[in-house]
Write a structure and sequence with these properties.
The two termini are 28 Å apart. The protein has a two-stranded antiparallel sheet. The chain is elongated and about 55 Å long. It is built from 3 helices and 2 strands. By secondary structure, the protein is α+β, with helices and mostly antiparallel strands. It has a domain of 43 residues. Bound molecules: zinc ion (ZN). Zinc ion binds next to strand 1 and helix 3.
Length: 80
Amino acid sequence: MDVHPLVRKIAASDTTNSATHYHIFWSNESLDWKPFPTKEEATILADQIKKPDEGFTVVERDGQCERCKIFKSASKNGAA
Ligand SMILES: [Zn+2]
């Protein structure tokens, strides 16, 4: 079966995008840009970089993650 290169490209990026990952959601309501593969890693890093009076929640995201979409499209600019 012949697959159009664009279809292959979409399918490939879907594979990486659909992976469940985690973000740190800070108590000031900002969502950290960095995706973590596990909740543990996000929690450990957040504990290390948070300010003493700052709280956070680790939130789960999937391939439809708005945060990663924004970050990826921004970093892709000029790198075509
Ligand atoms: Zn994400």
